[in-house]
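Morning F.,

Quick status update on the modeling queue. The single chain you submitted on Monday has been processed. Sequence for confirmation:
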Amino acid sequence: MEYIKKLNEIVDNFDAFCKESDWNLTVDNQKEGIKFWQKPQVKGVQSIKTEGFIEATPLDVMKVLCDNGVKQQWDPTFRDFELIERVADQIYIQYFTFSGFLIMAPRDLLLVILAKLTEDGTYYLSFYSVDRDDLKPKVKEYVRSRIIQSCWKLEGHPGENGTPQQRTLVTQMSQFDIGGYIPAFVISHGVKENSNVIAKLRPIVNQTRTQSSIGKSAN
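C-alpha cells below.
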C-alpha cells in the first residue's frame, strides 16, 4: 500500500536526510542541551530539525507523543483531533486542528501516521499529509497546511547509573508548507516555539512516568 511504503521510506531515509549538508544551526541552547537547525526555505517549504535528551525511556516518550490528550501541554496551538481511519496495524489517518497565533489564521492537517519500533529498540513516529478531501473536506475556518514529511526518532541511551535505555536522544525533523501568506515575523515566532518542543516535552514525560509508577505501586 502507498501509505505504508512512503511512511517506511521516511523512517529509512531519516538519518541520511538529517545529515545533509545544507542544515544551518540556528539555536544552540547549552543550558537546556537542545540544538535546532533549519534548511533554506524553498518555494514556501520550511525544513526544521531539533535534537536533545529526555531522561526517560523511548517508550515513555513515545507514549506522550501518541497521546493527543496531552498534546496541548507541549503544543499550545493544538485544538483537537479526530481519528478518521485505521489503515493497518499502527497506521492511522487523523485530522488535526490548530489555533492561529499573532495574525495567522487557524490551520488544519490531514495526516497518515505510523508508529514503529525497530529491532534495536528505537522508536519512530512518522507522518505526512494526504490529499483526501473525500475523508475530510476543507472548511473556510481553517487553512489546510501540508506536511511533506515529518518524523520523531527516539533512541535509547544508558542512564548515569548504567541502566540500559534510561535516557532518550530525541531527534525530530519536519518539512512542511504552512499554507497561505505568512509574514516573516510570524514564521520566526513559530520557529522559536518549535525549537523549544523537547524542553516542553520533558516535564510531561516525567509526570506521566511518575503517575504510571504510582499506579503500578498501588496495584
